[in-house]
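Researcher: I'd like a structural prediction for the single chain below. Treat it as a standalone chain; there are no partners to consider.
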Amino acid sequence: MSASLDLWNIPLRALNINVRKRLGLFLNPRNTVASDWMSVAENMGFSYLEIKNYEDCQDPTRKILEDWQARCPGAKVGKLVSILDNVDRKDVVEDLRVLIEEDCRRYIERQNEPPVQVPEVDSCVPRTPERQGITLEDDPEGGIPELFDAFICYCQSDFDFVHEMIQQLEQTDHKLKLCVFDRDVLPGSCVWTITSELIEKRCKRMVVVISDEYLDSDACDFQTKFALSLCPGARSKRLIPVKYRSMKKPFPSILRFLTVCDYTRPCTQSWFWVRLAKALSLP
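Model: Treating it as a single chain, here is the predicted structure.
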């Protein structure tokens, strides 16, 4: 690699889809001679069970790159190149060297571009117009924003369970305040901007309702990965996965390292809501 580029300080997100697809062409085929994506995943710190789960993916290389980027703050381009060297895939590094360097240079150029001039904002209380008056109880004049104990990440097919969650956590002695997008968010704003605002600055925690349909939801995928990026390693216990019905598809690998609140086990159902409420009540 070019000596002028410090790849160890360039995040993995600098690599575009073209480079990631080409990495998959090299690493996806199971090869008895050269190391494949499984060796790379092992060096990234994925467990044996996580790696086995990736075998069902059409493009496991792309998936491990996405999940590594979401869960690991040390996911840098330099680290990826080092891992490829460690598993004796210098051929991949050499063949993609030019493309990787181009992506890294573009990333550095974007970082060095002068920022767009916008009104000064407070990091804790956003005041840009699109982030004011976004929920039912917000001050339309941009005063103190409405805050919540938890953002609920769900897909429409799981809405009945979300209703039960509202009854059990808001309308009981727990008196928690949940952010339910379809109920609390006003229409007319950019979905991604508002969602990131709510998860990062308005909600202490995020509850992820896991189901087969969740795995096919682009919105749930964005919300989960965004929340994980805010708390790598789950040090702040910010993300709480909830499984409320049996699944045909594998449990999402990106959440396997988190403790799950499981409603499907009859022997623990009586403790389910108390445990979840206690987790959401933590400071």
